[in-house]
Amino acid sequence: MDNKIKKVAVVGTGVLGSQIATLTSCFGYEVSAYDSDEGAFKRALKDIGSLIESRGKDPVVTVEEWDKGGEKVVVCGELKEALRDADLVIEAAPEDVAIKREVFKRIDALAPEKAILATNSSSIPISRIEGATNRPEKCLNLHFYFPALGHNMVDIMGGTKTTDETFQTGRAWIRTVGCVPLTVNKEILGFCFNRVWRAIKREVLHMWAEGFVDLRDIDRAWMIFSNMSQGPFGLMDNVGLDVIYDIEMVYYNESKDPKDHPPEALKAMIDRNELGRKTGKGFYTYPDPEYSKPDFLEA
Ligand SMILES: NC(=O)c1ccc[n+]([C@@H]2O[C@H](COP(=O)([O-])OP(=O)(O)OC[C@H]3O[C@@H](n4cnc5c(N)ncnc54)[C@H](O)[C@@H]3O)[C@@H](O)[C@H]2O)c1
């Protein structure tokens, strides 16, 4: 365990925050969690239960360790309580810069002076959030990739004032929770691998929305090519289609290129509350999606 970080607080415990808190707890850290919706942590962990069962070949922790780790996370009803004595605070609230700035402002006011503040944002550089705090030198991006699936890597990127000490502490900490740090040397929207994944998402969403191919054939192709247990549409369902939409909008708002705008058909699904695994329906239906059936690749 890294000796500079002993206690970690996670703020926002939906799909990703709940996984970050659990993973961190599995690796022996004291973890507290806060969400404006107090039931979010338990609900999110339950929702991904079936996913954990079908984890890939390289789980970071076993299912048993995962369950025990989740039980040890202290869910707090007040933000102040969750932040007490924290050395590292990881924010995983919705992908909206205004919300993140507001959350960072509150965290900054309540967290110990020593605490490093990180955002798990999938696309927003910390440089757009750090100004909401009085400690930009202690702010950074730490972007996780669905640790419940065993994707053991984390993008790390600093802001305009992040000190080398903060960065190196964050980098060392990532290794202590069984993950490989993907270091971003110069600010870029989407960090390291997430930008690659985003290029794939943009392409397949347009192929689907414009009716060129059946989304299942794209997923089949991906699964055969990569030997993964799901393709891009299955992955997007697991992330949450509302989250995907918000991320795509961050890129669109940056470029204003119509090609970067997520398709209206995706927005229509969100309006129908078809958000993927978390609402039981997205591109596939859950908990038993077609891509998990033994004959999916042969169909
Ligand atoms: N879903 C993914 O696969 C994934 C992967 C990597 C990173 N991320 C990033 O993680 C962040 C969260 O995404 P998610 O998928 O977990 O979203 P989510 O909608 O599942 O969870 C967000 C949580 O934040 C809570 N929240 C909202 N406002 C809050 C506030 N003011 N204070 C505290 N909690 C608040 C909500 O109640 C909810 O439980 C986003 O920035 C997203 O880009 C998501």
How would you summarize this macromolecular structure in one to three sentences?
This protein is of the alpha/beta class and 299 residues long. The chain has 12 helices and 8 strands. It has an 8-stranded mixed sheet, with helices on both faces.
Structure write-up:
The structure is a single chain. This protein has twelve helices and eight strands. It has two domains: about 180 residues, NAD(P)-binding Rossmann-like Domain (Rossmann fold), CATH 3.40.50; about 90 residues, N-(1-d-carboxylethyl)-l-norvaline Dehydrogenase, domain 2 (Orthogonal Bundle), CATH 1.10.1040.10. With about 300 residues, the chain is α/β, with parallel strands linked by helices. It is globular. The mean pLDDT is about 95. Strands 3-2-1-4-5-6-7-8 form an eight-stranded mixed sheet, sandwiched between helices. The structure holds nicotinamide-adenine-dinucleotide. Nicotinamide-adenine-dinucleotide binds next to α1, α6, β6 and α11.
Give the integer mean of the pLDDT values.
Answer: 93
Fraction in helix:
40-55%
CATH architecture of the largest domain: 3-Layer(aba) Sandwich
Indicate how many domains the architecture comprises. 2
- Strands of the widest sheet, in order across it, are 3-2-1-4-5-6-7-8
CATH class of the largest domain: Alpha Beta
CATH superfamily of the largest domain: NAD(P)-binding Rossmann-like Domain
Number of helices: 12
Along the chain, the helix and strand elements come as EHEHHHEHEHEEEHEHHHHH
Would you count the extended β strands for me? 8
Estimate the global geometry from the Cα principal axes: globular
Ions and ligands: nicotinamide-adenine-dinucleotide
Radius of gyration: 19 Å
Q: Report the oligomer.
A: single chain
CATH topology of the largest domain: Rossmann fold
| Major sheet details | 8 strands, mixed
The end-to-end span amounts to 47 Å
Percent strand equals 5-15%
Structural class: alpha/beta
> Any low-confidence stretches, pLDDT <50, length ≥5?
none
